[in-house]
Every structure is written in structure tokens, then in C-alpha cells.
Specification:
The chain has 53 residues and is an all-alpha fold. Helix content is 66%, strand content 0%. It is built from 1 helix and no strands.
């Protein structure tokens, strides 16, 4: 026997998944932009500071 469809829940889940993906993509673009700005400014974001150890 097939289950009864819950269209509202399924729609909310699709929207939630889509929002997560959009947020992840936006944060990745933001981080890349910050890295590019740091490189353009002459900083090296990949090297940890010596005084932070």
C-alpha cells in the first residue's frame, strides 16, 4: 500500500535543501573573495602567524 502524500512537508523540505545549498555557495564565494583581496593586498592567508602558537 502506498503512503499518503504530504505535499506541504515535501515542499518545505525541498525549499530547505535549496536554501542550504544557496547559503553554502554564497559563503564559499564570500571566502574566495576575501582570499583574493588578501592576496591582492600582499597578505598570505595560507601561512599561520608565528605568534599564534
Amino acid at each position: 500500500m502506498a503512503r499518503k502524500p504530504n505535499y506541504q512537508f515535501e515542499r518545505m523540505e525541498r525549499d530547505r535543501q535549496k536554501a542550504l545549498k544557496v547559503n553554502e555557495k554564497a559563503s564559499a564565494k564570500r571566502e574566495q573573495r576575501e582570499r583574493d583581496r588578501a592576496v591582492a593586498a600582499g597578505d598570505s592567508p595560507s601561512e599561520p602567524d608565528a605568534d599564534e602558537t
